[in-house]
Amino acid sequence: MTAVLVPLGTRPEIIKLAPVVRELTATGFAVRLLATGQHGDAAMSAAFFDELNMHPDETWVLPADPHARVAAILEGAEHELATNRPDLVLVLGDTNTVPLFCLAARRNRVPVAHLEAGLRSFNATSMEEVNRKVAAACASLHLAPTDLAAQFLAEEGIDPAHVRVVGNPVIDVLRQLGVRRVGLGERSGAVLTAHRATNVDDPTRLAALVELVHRIADEAGTVTFPVHPRTRRRLEEGRLLGALAGDGVLLSEPVGYRAMSELVAASRVVVTDSGGLQEEASFFGVPVVVLRRSTPRWEGVRAGTSRLVGMDVALAMAAVRDLISPAAQQLADSTRCPYGDGHTAERVAELLGERATWDLLRLDEPDFVGREPPA
Ligand code: UDP
Fold first, then answer.
1. Which is the catalytic residue, given 162, 195, 214, 343?
2. Fewest C-beta in 10 Å: which of 13, 58, 282, 329?
3. 19-34 per-position pLDDT tens digit
């Protein structure tokens, strides 16, 4: 039986890997699910494992200090790889778990397949971008969600023979959940999330966020805001939680995945600095105001259904007004979701079932003795 190690640490990885793990298991792979504990908060991890019916074989509890956490994941990864020696490590996305397992895998000569490969924000200050590039340097199979992601990899010199466009498994999850798409006339209000350190750790931007929430409530109707634990901490520290509450603002703890999907589907606009929400809103035909100045999800920006605004209240409000207009609502509703078709997990399982894929994955030392170096 082919042994596949799937390490995962955060909410988006749990959500997106769920259908892939299910499909690999159903098609006869021995999948070992390792929860690294990067999101230790139960509302951000255990609740999602339960809801998505994922059962980690092992769960780590990491120390509180950020540097110690990174060290603990790397040490644990080295130990895991050296002890259990899987045939393949399958990682998804750009969290710290990804590059740390990639390094440990390569050191132990275990090949890596990277899902959601090729996303690029072109933001030199983004650690997630660094994580994606480390994954690209270590993986021998790059599972890109879109043609554009595959193009970015090719432009960085990744051999296209090692790249496959398979879609993003988040669309599989949404299809399997079966959350109803809501008709344009029945949608109301906005869903808002914000948790990026660049936004919520900066007191000026955090204050701008609070103002923005109220302005959106005035313009677009009720704003539902499930508050990420990090954002809640910063709001409490800045004594802004009281100012955030008010008419037309529904604050809550993070909600479960089905509940979140239903909220998104029923809203007129999503305002967020999250990556995954850009994909999910697109699936439900809901436009997105992105509270960042760059994004690795350019497909929505190109289609005109998502708009980059940073944490700039005036720009964000102009985008909200524009995107809730009938023409923009119609455009978002009728634009095909560019991020996947719901069959990503099947494609991954099929690929990993092919001998040719294992030839691609194999790590061999090249032999240039007496030959010309590669161009
Ligand atoms: N999400 C959720 N409940 C919430 C907020 C977000 O289920 O209260 C989901 C959301 O639908 C998306 C994922 O969590 O699938 C996004 O996670 P996050 O924003 O932490 O990470 P990112 O996608 O930016 O990497």
1. 195
2. 58
3. 999 999 999 999 999 9
Residue 368 lies in a domain: no
What is the value of pTM for the model shown?
Answer: 0.96
By CB atoms closer than 10 A (0-12, 13-18, 19+), residue 351 is: middle
SS3 115: strand
Range of the domain at 100: 3-168+340-361
pLDDT digits (tens, 9 = 90+) for 174-185: 999 999 999 999
Radius of gyration for the chain, computed over Cα atoms and rounded to the nearest angstrom: 21
Residue 330, CA atoms < 13 Å, CB-side half-sphere: 3
Contact 357, 162 (CB under 8 A): no
Looking at the structure, do residues 194 and 314 belong to the same domain, yes or no? Answer: yes
Measured from the CB, is residue 274 less than 6 Å from ligand 1?
yes
Our answer on whether the CB atom of 13 is closer than 6 Å to any ligand 1 atom is: no
Is the four-CA dihedral 68, 137, 35, 175 of positive or negative sign?
Answer: positive
Known catalytic residue at 195 = yes
